[in-house]
Design goal:
Strand 9 (144-151) and strand 10 (154-162) form a beta hairpin. It is globular, with a radius of gyration of 19 Å. It is built from four helices and ten strands; from the N terminus they run H-H-E-H-H-E-E-E-E-E-E-E-E-E. With 164 residues, it is of the alpha+beta class. It has a single domain, classed as Calycin beta-barrel core domain (Lipocalin), CATH 2.40.128.
């Protein structure tokens, strides 16, 4: 009986330990994203938002915004903050783990962030039928954060400058 409880304890303890296991190398490589970035320019962003189904008024507000994007890291938990005069949105995540997210336009999505080949990839899967999925691929070029936004066959490029 003691062996049973010991085996059960080990199984539960081991499972709990591996639940938040993370790849230290990927976290270390991705750490270069930590910091704040100010919006500089955008190409085709209105078309990207149209492809997502964002209404006219929200598109105009989003196009007028000059957001600051901030990445922070606490052990293996990342936080991504989008700060603008209109609203601040925040999402916390672990690389490779699905999280629930509410997008700036109010869509509910299941989001997974991964890091491969110097790129931080964010895949948003729509929860509601009829809503669109989207992908954001972020990479650093010097002190610039380049974000490629994809919805279906529409692509937008957004450039942000590191400020800290």
């Amino acid at each position: 009986l003691l062996a049973f409880w010991y085996a059960l304890f080990l199984k539960l303890f081991t499972k709990k330990l591996t639940l938040h296991k993370f790849d230290r190398n990927k976290v270390a490589m991705a750490e270069k994203f930590i910091g704040k970035y100010r919006f500089v320019s955008s190409e085709n962003f209105d078309e990207f938002m149209k492809a997502l189904g964002v209404n006219y008024l929200l598109r105009k507000i989003a196009n007028a915004a000059s957001p600051i994007v901030e990445f922070s890291l606490d052990r293996d938990v990342w936080t991504l903050r989008n700060i603008s005069t209109f609203r601040t949105l925040e999402i916390s995540f672990r690389l490779g783990e699905e999280v629930d997210e509410v997008t700036p336009d109010g869509r509910h999505v299941k989001t997974v962030f991964t890091y491969e080949n110097g790129e931080l990839k964010q895949v948003q899967k729509a929860v509601k039928p009829g809503e669109k999925d989207s992908i954001f691929i972020r990479k650093l070029e010097g002190d610039k954060l380049i974000t490629t936004c994809i919805c279906g066959n529409v692509t937008s490029i957004r450039v942000l400058q590191r400020i800290s």
